[in-house]
Amino acid sequence: MCRWLVYSGTPVLLCDVLYRPVPSLIDQSLRSRMGVETTNGDGFGIGWYTDDIATPAIFRDTGPAWNNRNLREIADHVRSPLFFAHIRSSTGTAVQQTNCHPFRHGRWMWMHNGVVAGFDRLRRELCMAVDPALFSRIEGTTDSEVMFYLALTFGLDEDPPGAVARMAGLVERLGHDHGIEFPLQMTVATSNGERVWVFRYSSRRESRTLFYSSSVESLRALHPDVAWLRGLSADTRLVVSEPLGDLPGAWNELPESSYGVIPPDGELLAGFDVAMTAH
């Protein structure tokens, strides 16, 4: 599987999040503690938004993240209020740039940890459900990218939770039609540059790990002597496949079959279930 993180809030240098915590996401690319695989070396990617450009920048490569000089150079010099980072462990598709996350379409980014079981059997039918106007934009061969374009087809622009639910429902229905008992395993992050939506769901109800950071106010109360917390806005949040650093009280597990919105419009978290579709 893979490891990923989302940062949203006060603009920071990417290196402050990617490299400086111990353990960091870069550490996890070599020594993951909670992933299915210990090593996630089948490529990586980062994507970031800036205040004056609507579409995100993307940098992806096929080598491991832990020794990539270009990644370190970018991270030391790019400051962003919203960025994604992903380290890949392939579930069978080729190690190539077009299969590395995050994926981008217009202002949207998407990344995924998990698998569509039996994707080789389901791929044609899933791709046939993608809007023909979007189909030619699929560059790689992963289940993750097809999931993204299905979500776009099903209304990601207007209703992200509903679109992801319809995408997941289609995967479930087609999987069951092909005799696959547990078709879907996913933690997903997607953003339009204004908000981030994160999802944790699996057919087994035994999803891969996902954690969100405690509120900045709570962390300041717990750790009044930690200087870097003072410069963060109240809406700053991180979502990670496994915790970064060792700050007590910093991390909370996203509940099974749920999704979150950052910054929240009301409640941070809500329940998530698939919407079976007839497509």
TrEMBL record:
GO terms for molecular function: hydrolase activity; transferase activity. The keyword Hydrolase applies. Its EC number is 3.5.1.118. Residues 2-279 form the Glutamine amidotransferase type-2 domain. It comes from the Bacteria. It is an enzyme of class 3 (hydrolase). Keywords: Glutamine amidotransferase, Hydrolase, Transferase. The keyword Hydrolase applies. This is Glutamine amidotransferase.
